[in-house]
Structures are given as structure tokens and as C-alpha cells.
Protein 1
Amino acid sequence: MLRRIEPLFYSKFPALSNIAIAALICIAAKDHVPLEYLFGWLLLMAGVSTYRIILNGQFSRAEIADVDVLMWERRMFLCAAVQGGIWSAVGLAVATFPMPIEVLGVVLMAVCGMLAGSTFTMTGSQKVFRAFVLPAGIGTTIGIAFMEGDAGLVLSLMAVVFLIVVLIWGWTISKATDERLMLAAEKEHLLVNLELAHREAELEKDLKQETFNKLGHELRTPLNSIIGFAEIIGTEAVGPIGNAKYREYGSLVAESGKHLSNLIDEMLNLARSESLQAAIDKEPVDIEEIMVFCRDLLAPLARRRGVELRVSRAEAPIPLISADRLKLRQVLINLINNAIHYTLQGGQVDVAVKRDADDFMEISVSDTGIGMAEADIPKALEPFNQLESGKTHNPSGKGIGLALSKKFVELHGGTLTIESEFGVGTKIRVFLPIGTGDQVAGRG
């Protein structure tokens, strides 16, 4: 509401132009209209215009609330109505005092200019606009109609048409202004909502970060104990175990614990990053060695669920690749772990690696599990989004494994693809570029 009437008070120019044009009319008509009449009319115009300038200044300095809008609109309405009435006196002068056609042309052109100008300065309020236009236009038109001769009738008809055009034009501009203000208000409302949503997201991010930090601390405390005791067992620090297999298991538990500890650090680093973009620490990596590590780590889970876990070595020698060992391990752990959980008892999970024709290393994890519909594949790749069909088979899942694996693969410049058929199984392929140069040597 306030924005709608603000244009009425924007500038002093309309009021000053009223005085200037009125003075020019007086100069043009001074030889045909009594000077006292012209002086009195100009004095009234100057007084009302000065009041309008004062009103503009008061408006610009005041703190206007929505409840004050009607009061200010009424003040400008009265000012415009009086000013329009003063302009209507031009019609009285035209009808009373005969003027040459050139003087009459100047007078009528001045009135038409003021009426046209009001469509730009007063259409913020149709009441104010009409309070000025109607008295000025109708008064002048009537005065012209009372002129002697046929010219008065013709000019008055033209004045009526012009007045109608000005009113329609003013209404059109006012309507367009209202629509623009409505759109601006909607935009402002959307920006406010966006700001609130942004603040909520920041608070949620801070809460998640705090939760991750607390969780990391709670996990590290028992995990450090596990790693320490496992290393004692694996190195036989307090005496021989008596069975080499136990020593091997102890070393495997210690290695797995270290991997999990490093993974916790990675997760905390990722939580601090808004875009999940993290640095990768590349080194020469043997993919088959990582595959065997992941198989040994997840073999107990596969046995408990009655799933056969197989790792197939490539027929041709596989070169080392330049990759982040920890992240690549986690990719395979996530993919194999998902495959085991979503495969029914008696099924199998196959892990294989080969070098493709495009000089990329292809690692595949395929299962004979429950699968998923093609439309659900994009959903499965969204963080913290676990499909309904998978919650029964893996109720402890959090829906982050696939998304995290895809992100880690992309950090290496690779791609992760999924092929799946509901009720048949799933095959996930990871394509990684083969590193070259001094960092990575060929394996032979």
C-alpha cells in the first residue's frame, strides 16, 4: 500500500512545472485577459504548488506506517483536487475573454501537457489522479464549448476525446504499476523465505557437524582399544599364541580397525565440506590386493548370511593405478557390503577386475540379490536415501554407501554405473583411469 502512493511524493518537479507553465500562460494571455485575473490565478497556483512541495518534504522525512497511508493519500487528494480546480479556471477565461487562435493554441497545449503529465506522476492513486484530471479537463472543455463560432464545438469535442484517452491511459498505467508492485512483493516474500531456509540449513549443518564430532569421539575411544589389543595379539607381545591362524586374525582385526579409524576421520572431513569435495592422497595401488583385503574383511558377514563371496583375478597382469588407497578400499567395502546384504541365502556375490579397451580399469561387483527397478537407481545414489525394498534386508543401513562410493570414484576422475533388474540382481561397475608416469610403475 505504501509503495503504491510513494510516486505521488517522489519529486518536486510536477509542482514546479505547474507554476512554470501557469506563468507562461499568463505571459501569453496578458494582452487579452485582465492582469488582476491572471495575477490572482497565478498566485493561487503558486500557493497550492508550494503546499504540494512542502507535503513532499514532510512525506520524505516522516516514518510512514501502513496505517498512515490513507491519511497521506487524502492530503494529496485534496491538493490535487484544488490544483485541478485552479486549472479548470482556464475554461472560464477562454469562454469570457476572446483570444487569437495562436494564444488559444498555447493555452490549450499547456493544459493538455499538464493532463498528460499527470498520468506519470499521479497514477499511484486513481483517486488523486482523477481529482486533478477531471476538474481541469472538464472545466477547460466546457469553457471551449462556450466559445463563439463552430471552432468552439469542434475543439470541445476533441477535448472530450483527449480527456477520455488520458483517463484510460492513466488507468492502464495504474494497473500495470499495481501488477509490478504485486510481483515485487511476491519476490520480497520469496527472498525472505529463502533467507529463512538458508538459516535453517546453516543451523542443521552445524547440528550435523556437532553430531559427527561427538560420534567420532565415541567411536574412537573403543576403537583405539580394539586396535591396541589386536596388535598385541597379532605381534604376540605378551607371549606366543600357539596357533598361527589366531595371529593372522589379530593382525587382520588391527588392520581393519585402522581402516575404520581413518574412515571416521574422512567422514568428519566430508561433513565439514558443503559439497563433499575432499582432497585425495594418490599413491601406487594394487587393485587385486585391495579386493583380497575387502574379501577377507567381509567373508565372515557373507558366511553368516549364507552368501558365496568370490573374487576373480584377471587373466592378464593388472598394472598399478594411481589412487587413494583408503577411499578405494571404502568404495569396494561399501559395494560388497551392500551386495551381501541384498542377496538372499544361497546367492552369490562376484568381484572382478579387468582392463578395458579405453585404458580404464573396470572393477565390477555383481550379485544375485533382490535388485531394483531402473527408476529407483537415481534414488539409490542419493545420500541418506534408502529404498523401501532394501530396508527389510538391511534395516541398519543409512543410505550413504552408494552415494559416498560414487563421490569417491568421481574424485579419482572415474565413473560408477549401475545395472539392475528387480528380482534378478545388480551389477555395479567402477571405471578408474590408469595412472602413468613416475608415480605408478607397471606391474609384471
Note: The mean pLDDT is 82.
Protein 2
Amino acid sequence: MKGGGRVRHSQQVSVFLFYFFSFLSISFTSNAQIRALNEADSLRLAKAWAPILYHDVDATYRNPETGFIPADEILKIDFDGNEDLRDNGANVFQLSTDRQKHLIQNPALYFSIVETESHYYLNYMVYHALDTNAWWHTHDTENFWVVVQKDHSPYGKFIAAISNAHGYGMIYSDNPQRQRQWRNNLIQDYKIYFLPLLDEFSWKHNLDRYKPEFVERKSGSKAMKLFVTARSHALYKFNTQAWMNRGPVYLPEDCDDCDSDIENASVKQKDIRHYELVNWDQLMTNLRKRSSENIFASNLMSPSVLTNGYRLVKNLPHYFAPPTNQEKPTANLFYETSFKTPMALLDPVALHTSLASAEEQHSISSVYLHNVYLARAPNKIAPQNILALLPLLSLR
């Protein structure tokens, strides 16, 4: 080897070692100083901010013996006892009496949490087997998105929440100024003004003078009260006029403050149910391992904005499989949801930043500690990319 080759090789080795030890230093420092949520922490955090749901119902298909209403029951996705999701729309009408009673007594909401260095982004999904409003479809899912800023308290500080109403985002905050700011920055098309044709009283939900209601919890967190419309299951803030005590109230498990609020309410609720919180990401990972790939659709939306060099990860299913009479599922699943904006919830930092004031933007970190839907772009140094630097050591 000539002298120039030895110098060049020495420089290449130095470059490799610099990047290698820099990566190790960053990794060990990050892990030592900032610990992402584990599974138990995630569940505790989800319970802390879980909503209260006041559900309106359409009694057209009510079973008089059990009270079960196929289109308006909040269910688990495997409510029929099997993991093939393609038959849910048909099976919800074919459940035994005992099974119907069991499902009424054991509702569930799904949750998923994305974490950055500065915030938690909690997503709660409400699943119904059917939407029977204007256009019938299976796998009706709506979601409730909660933004919590980290501070020195156990569960953080509530910033704002967005509920899903037919894909439109209903923005709510306990800070009126922030609520107006976010609403002004969320540009939605003119069709939002047709929501009152679909959901009675919905025009009031996006007016500032109608404030959202919360149950303050001793832990420092709060449970927002949501109204779930009959048939279409759009989510809005609670409205006594709309609900009219016609359907059940769903409370999170282990929320004594929620129970007390219900007991002290001026309108006595007739049907109170406590729901279980189920980790969506864990469920989907396990279901994907056990089940045939063909029960999931493979198409995946690509949001036009991804923050700070992140890319999509396709290790989790993003759509339910459509039934035989649909080309593609119409469900609004967690991270497909964009609230009619270019920013889908798989990259919540992008959406949060687009809504926040300039002052609030300074508090938003774009560094994800936990996000199963995104990964660092290939040009960022990651463990699997270290090997790509090895050719630098080759002798020529």
C-alpha cells in the first residue's frame, strides 16, 4: 500500500470511529436522561386522561330482552369471538342473548400514545361495528386526541383535545385563548357547516361560548365529557340538550372522581357502564402475528408532512379489512386520521405545530421517544446503518 493510500485509509477509519462513538454517546446519554414510557406507564397515563362518553342511541334495532343495539354499542373489534374482522358487520346481528349481555357489561376503548421529549399525544378510539346514518358502512371508528405537556406532575398538563366528527376536528381546551387560536389555524372546508344536517345540535359544538366540561381528578388530570351521536357516532363535547338521557354513560375504570360526578349530577343517569382501556398498538402487533395477512388491507396513506426527517413504518396494520361488499374500508383509524388537514396523526408534532401559536411552538419538541408509526429517515445514523459505514474500511 502506498503512503497516500495509508493516509486515506486512516482518515476513513477515523471517520467511521467518530460516527460510531458519537452514535453510542448519543444513544447512552438519551437513554440515561430520558426514559420513554413503558407499557404500565402508558396504561396509567391513558387512564388519567380518559374521557367520559354520553352516548345517544337509535332504538330501531334494540333487542327488548337485553337492550342490545347492534349499531350503537361500543365494542371490542373481536366482539364476535373471532379475529377475522371481515365478518363483524354481519355478526353483530347474530349474537346470542348471553353474548349481548356480556358485551353490554364489558365495553372497551382503545388507546395509543405517541411520546416526544416535551409532550404526550394520546389517542382514544371508539369502535362500533356499523355506521347506520346516511351511508352504511362497517368498522365505524372515531377518535379523541389529547395533547398533554410534560411538567413535574405525574401526568402532565392538559393543553387541548380534538374530537373526530365525520373526519372534522372539533377543538376544545380549558384555555379559551388557546382554543380560539387552534380553531383559527385549523382550516377546514365549507362542508363542516353541513354537520347540523347529520347531527342534531352540532352547530353549537364549535362555538366558543359553549365551553367543554371536565371532571377534575385528584391526581391533577381531568376527564373531558364527550357526546356520541346515534348511528354515526361523531364525537362532540357534551351537550345536555343533545343527549337527553337517552343512552348509556361510559366511564373509565378506576375513576372515583368520575363516579362521584355522575352520582351528584342533576340529571340521574339510568344506564352507567365502565369501560376497559386496551392498548391498541400492542393488540395490533399481536393480532398481526397470529392472523392471516389477508384480514388487513395493505394500502397506507402517506401524509405530505413529516417532521424532522421521520419516515413511515409499515410494521402495523393501518386499516381494517373491508367486508365483501366494499372495495376499501371506510374506518377512520387512529393515525390515518388527519382532521381534514395534510398532517395525519402518525406525525402528531406536525399537526400540533400547525395549530399552535408562535409562543406555544417554542415548547414543542420534534424528537420522538416513542412512535411505532414513524422511524428516523435512512440518512440518520441508526444501529442498522452503522454496518453501511463498514465499506469505508475496505482496502483498495
Note: The chain has one domain: 39-293+331-365.
Protein 3
Amino acid sequence: MDTLDAHVEVSRKAHNAAEVKAGLLDILLKCAGLDEALRKRSAAQRASGVSVRMLAP
């Protein structure tokens, strides 16, 4: 296994770790204000009569 393959494998495992996913979600929702932006967008769509759909994970 060369260096690039090893790096890719370790990175893949880290990105798939539950703790990493939870941390990224926490950053996006709290620190980046994504939760508030999504809430505002949803409210605006409901007010304009646009149907809001959920994206599959």
C-alpha cells in the first residue's frame, strides 16, 4: 500500500466515524447558523405556498 492509498483509507474511516459526523453536523447547525437559515427558508416557502420536501440522506 502506498502513501496515497493509506491516506485515503484513513481519511475515509475518519469521515465515516459517528463522532466526526456528529461534530460536523454540530458545526453546521450551531456555529454556521444553518439551522436558522433552514428554518427561515422553510417558513418563507410555506408562506408563499411552495411545498417543502425533505431530501433523503
Note: The radius of gyration is 18 Å.
